[in-house]
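Prompt: Have a read of the protein record below and flag anything odd:
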Amino acid sequence: MHYQTHFPPTEFAQRRAQIFHAIGNQAVAVLPGAAATGAFDLFRQTNDFYYLCGVEVPHAYLLLDGRTQQTTLYLPPHDAKHERSEGAQLHADAPELVCQLTGVDVVKPHAALREDVRGAATLYTRHKAAEGKEACQDTLRYAAQQAAADPWDGRPSPEAHFYAKLEAFLPHAERCDLCPLLESLRLIKSERELALMRRAGELSAAAVVAAIRSSQPGLMEYHLGAVPDYVYLAGGANGPGYRPIIAGGDNIWNAHYFRNNCPLKPGELVLMDYAPDCGNYTSDIGRMWPVNGRYSPTQRELYGFVVEYHKVLLQIIRPGKLVRELAAEGAERIRPTLETWPFSKPAYRAAAAKMVESEVAFTHPVGMAVHDVGTYREEPLQPGFVFALDPQLWVPEERLYIRVEDTVAITATGVESHTAAAPLELDEVEALVGCGGMLSTFPPQ
C-alpha cells in the first residue's frame, strides 16, 4: 500500500481543525516533510507532518492557511521511471486521488507554495528540529550540539535552511512557533493512536518474553537483540522504534547502552529496553533477568524492591491527579515495605529511599517518539496520556543501576499497562529463563 490505513481522513482533519482554531484567520502554518535519505531504507516521515496528514512521501510540504481555512499539500511530480522500479507513490499529478486519501483540500506542485503564502501577516513554523526515524527531541538536541561544536561543520539544519528561504519572501511576517500547539495535541492520544500503541506494547512484551526464554550464558548481547527483531517484523511493525538497549553485567550502568557486543555471563543480570515502530507509534519497556536463570540474593534484594514499588504505582495511578501527588501517595504506600525490606547494606536502603521520595518513576511521555513531546507534570493527568512508568534505583558506590519499565495509558478510571504481558514477578521470570527459546531452535553461529 502506498498510503497509510491506520487513520481515516477525518481524524487528520480534526487535528488540523485544532491548528486552524489556534492560529486564527490571518496566519499560515507551514511544515516541511522529511527528505529522501539517499539510501535503500524504508522511508519514515517526520512525526508532526505525519500527524497532520499521514503522507509518507519524501520532499512533501503542508500549508494550513488560516485566511482560507484550507490545507494544501505540495508534492513532487509523477516519476514514472521511479514508480516502475519501486512502486506507486502519491504525487502532485493525481490531486483528486491524493485529496480523497488524505482529506486535504488542495494538492499542488512544490513551486506553488511561494505564491500561496504571499501576504501572510503571521507565519507559524517549527522552531525545533523535526523528529524522524528513531529520533526524539533529546537525541536531536544532542546531535545539534555535536554539529555546533564541530569547526568543520557549521551548516544550518534542514529546518533552518527551509525557513530561511521561506522568510526571504515573507520578510514582514511575524514568526511564531508551531511546536507548542502540536506538542499539546500529541500529548493526549486518540482511540486509534492508543490501538497502535497497545499493539506496540504487546509486541514489546512478547519480545522480552521470547528473549528471556532464549537467554543462556555464552550468548552475545546482540544475539538476544535478534529475537525482538523477528518478533517485531513478524508482528507487522515497521522496525524498531529506537535502538535496542541489551546490556549485560557492568554495561547496565550506562542507562542508554547501545553497542550490544559483549558476552552474557553467568551470575550477571541482563537489561532489555527495546520496542517497535507500529504505524509511526512506539512503546517503551524495561526488564532485567538473570543470565543463568537465578537471581542472586543481591539481585533479588534490589530488583525485587523496585518491582514491588512499581506494582504499588500501578495500583494508584489514575486521572485527575498531579504527578507529584501520585509520587507522594506511592511513597506513602511503599514506606512500610521499605522499612522492613531486608536490605543487606545501608547504601542499598538509602538508594531505595531516594528513589521512592522522587518523581523519577514518571519518566517521560511515549507516543510517536519514545521520549515523546509535551509537558505533563503541572496539570492533572488526563485519559489518553501515555507515559513510561520507570522507577530507577542507583547505587553509585557499586555502579549498580536497577530499573523496571512499562508503558502505561491513563484511562477514565485508572491506568492500562500496554506492556503488562512481560512478567514482573521474579519467580515467574526465573521459570522462563532458557526455557525453549527461539535461539535454541536456531542456534547462533
About this structure: The longest strand covers residues 27-32. The mean pLDDT is 96.
